[in-house]
């Protein structure tokens, strides 16, 4: 223990750490062309240095903050590792090939993107999990889309838009329960209030994906490629409709409130059993797939690029990125740097519109700096709760803002836990899919629009009564 009295963390301290982080990320991405893991880690220890030498924190306190933040993400990390195993055995067993096979037979390019948006939204509402949605129907829809000649990034945009729309409206979702708890309102009041921003965002996204789909309807459908994929899949796998029971059972288990970790691990084991029963795989081959992923030679490069994936090892790059981001987030949370930044932003909130604006921007900023959607809901929720009360605004306005920005922008940031997960699960390149995540981009803008126009911005009951009395 250093025994010195701590100094107050100022905006300047936090700004120095933030500028260093931005500079490090810019160098890594734009100049060196390297992964962001080490720059984020270096930025974390730079922030720790500021806290130790300028603010009189000691390392034990900082380490406690790191550990506490990592604990928040451990559940997500374990799920991520298990999802790698699920993807591997579901390919080996023929589950994913069967879903792709029948998807190519049923879906046409013109309706595929709107159908993907709707399918993922329904599954996410039922399961309460955008991650489960992406890892089950999402990976199959990626294969179907590419088979239909639609770029992976566009398909991923529809998957992520639908999955996060359903997630944020589901009473089973963890973030949907966390946001009203932070704001001081109840779950179903929160969900009902979110409908005003989420439904218009969904409808606009549906129109945009329908418009994009028209482009592929007008193009000549490459039936030769589709036939080649279908022939290759049927030649390399025993495509039995009974295999579709595996994802149905897993999704059903999640709906029945089986915890995500044992539910998804059970899905990986079910996939392994199906591989033995339907594809004649050995136990050793299944265990190898659980660890290293599926590796096969189908004779068609396109099919191999779709299916040679998964396994525990495939998620280690992403897991290490999450750990680096959590170290940075933990340091900045523990040393009050995030709070100092948020308080500075709060000084701009002189009107209701400005308050809504900064409440939307702060979770986005937290997602960028701290790398975790839970912190992006908890930190601004704590910071802005009193500000909303002081302006006589119902707390459901705050909880809606937290989800409209904190939840929805998290998959757009590659080093955020959600962004890293989507990139790893759907096989994406960072940044390239973001322009097609229409709902995630539109929803925060609608929320800001409502803030400045007053549409659906509700006051506390006693404030409404006072206003009516003045008018009377």
Walkthrough of the structure:
- This protein is mainly alpha-helical and 472 residues long.
- It has a domain at 72-315.
- The chain contains 22 helices and no strands.
- The longest helix is centred in the first third of the chain and has 34 residues, at 59-92.
- The radius of gyration is 23 Å and the shape is globular.
Rg (CA only): 23 Å
* Count of helix runs: 22
Beta percentage is under 5%
Q: N-to-C SSE series?
A: HHHHHHHHHHHHHHHHHHHHHH
**Gross geometry:** globular
**Alpha-beta classification:** mainly alpha
In whole angstroms, how far apart are the ends? 63 Å
Which consecutive residue ranges, at least 5 long each, have pLDDT under 50?
468-472
Nearest-integer average pLDDT: 87
Would you count the extended β strands for me? Answer: 0
Taking the sheet with the most strands, its summary is: none
- Helical content class: over 70%
Give a summary of the structure in a few sentences:
The protein has about 475 residues and is mainly α.
Features of the shown structure:
472 residues; mainly alpha; 77% helix; 0% strand; globular; disordered C terminus
SSE diagram, text form:
Blueprint (H helix, E strand, L loop, with lengths): L10 H22 L4 H19 L3 H34 L2 H12 L2 H19 L2 H18 L4 H18 L4 H10 L3 H32 L4 H14 L8 H11 L4 H20 L3 H10 L8 H7 L8 H19 L2 H10 L5 H19 L2 H18 L4 H15 L7 H10 L11 H16 L7 H11 L1
